Amino acid sequence: MSNYENPDKLEQIFGHLVDKYESLSSDASLEELSSLATQITEVTNNYNSSITEEGQVDPSKKIMVSLGYSNDSENEDPEYVYKSDSGFDLRSSEGIIIKPKEVELVSTGLSFDIPRGFEIQVRSRSGLAVKKNLFVLNSPGTVDQGYIGEVKVILANFSNEEVVIEKGDRIAQACLCPVVTGEFVDFLQNNKNKKTERGSSGFGSTGNN
Predict the structure, then answer these.
(1) Under CATH, domain 68-184 is a member of which superfamily?
(2) Which of 119, 149, 167, 171 is the one with CA 20 to 30 A from 189?
(3) Average of pLDDT values for 148-158?
């Protein structure tokens, strides 16, 4: 890939050209100004051509993330319904009844090989929350990068009626999210003398509304 095809390089070149343009003396020749303006226009056009009409990076230049998985259930494999979705559905691999005000651990039959620097967050499905008062109790539940076992969902029934979960029912959604893991963090003893604008002000410190 040449510098004129790499958006990051194009930004660097553009910045260099602008700095050069601004540093020209007031008595610079028309030829110098014209040449520099032409170069700036060329770089700008090349940069814009690497961006689609929707303002998104060209798909050929996107960095894709591979999420390995194993499906030991009878359910269909995980997938995003729409490419713009943040999460994909988790389905129950068993039939189960959740009694009112009780909590059950529901199997999905799925396990994942989560890439370095990511975690899976398990969240409630809005439809179940609104229609059946069924929530992922620890939402968002965390599936760490190093966990390779089956993903199970902690479902809580906050309604006054039994909720029947059938095999294959969508019970939660999973989001693959970037995260700073322990290998990148050094704990430093807190500096008690550190001063900030907010200080130790906590709950309600910015007002009641």
Answers:
(1) Deoxyuridine triphosphatase (dUTPase) (2.70.40.10)
(2) 119
(3) 97
